[in-house]
Amino acid sequence: TSDRYIIRSKEYFSEDERILELIESSESSTLLKEGTKVDEAIFDEEKSRIVGYLQNKGFAAFTKSNIDFKADSSDLQIDVFITILPPSSGFIHRQYTIGDIEVYPDYRGSIKESYSNAQELKGIQYAFDDENYFIKPRTLSRAMDMQERILYKKYRIDNTYRSLAKLGTYRFINISSQISEEQDTVINYKVFLTPIEKTWAIDGSLDLFYSYLAQNSLNRLGLSANTSLSNLNAFGGGEKFSFSLETTNEINLPEFQFSSFTFKAQTSLRFPTLVDPGNIILKRFERLPQKLGKG
After folding, report:
1. How many CB atoms lie within 10 A of CB 270?
2. Is the pTM of this model over 0.85?
3. Which among 272, 266, 209, 216 has a CA at the least distance from the CA of 240?
4. Beta carbons within 8 Å of 270's beta carbon, 6+ residues apart
5. Of 238, 245, 84, 218, the residue nearest 164 (C-alpha)
6. Element (DSSP H or E) covering residue 167
7. Is 230 exposed, middle or buried (0-12, 13-18, 19+ CB in 10 A)?
8. What averages of pLDDT result for each successive group of 10 residues across the chain (295 residues)?
């Protein structure tokens, strides 16, 4: 049959009253409103919505496995029962804050015992090894949407990933989390950045082509050449510089007379677009929950 079930009612259950209050306060954005037609995907999408909402309220370890759906149906209508399951480690879900943040801008697989030019910007520790910065400290600071001593919000971690990736200057970006040994509701972070070793690139091509113009009985031979030079980090702030040359020559055969000649030079400089913490649009995130380890 093509008839689809619709939601008649919905009810939440949880022993964690704080979680329950938060979920109920987000009802305006629920996908399971009364009268909504039900399909296979809507329940999983609602799980994603709840998880994203709670992870942006500090519940970093909350996942889809903590949500259980059940339903009773009759007359093409269903009553939905949503149970928030407790975490495996206790009775209530913990709300986390962000603790220390350390950034290693020149990570090569290991952390050194000391860094000659370590510095602090906006409360975040940057382990620079010398003053010949691959990326300027203020550029990295602008890319960091994470902040110390504030409530954990997943979108800030995601924004930081995206901004660092937009720089286009790092081969690997790894944001590692670990529960603080002093306080088990605090997450410390280490950000490992492995730079692209060669920021300069050169490219070029050479093409030979032939054409016959039947209307004028002309045989034409052409040669096209182009070359380009680019840099992924021109001034240490993730700026993309490129310079290109292109030329095309055509001659008529068999006279070997020049028919046309073109030459073009072009240069460009693009600046990275980084996250503006004051103008963030919250969306539903699909990234898998981070694994939190204690140590």
Report:
1. 12
2. no
3. 272
4. 239, 240
5. 238
6. helix 154-167
7. middle
8. 82 94 95 91 95 97 96 93 91 94 92 87 89 87 93 96 92 95 96 91 91 76 92 89 93 81 92 58 35 37
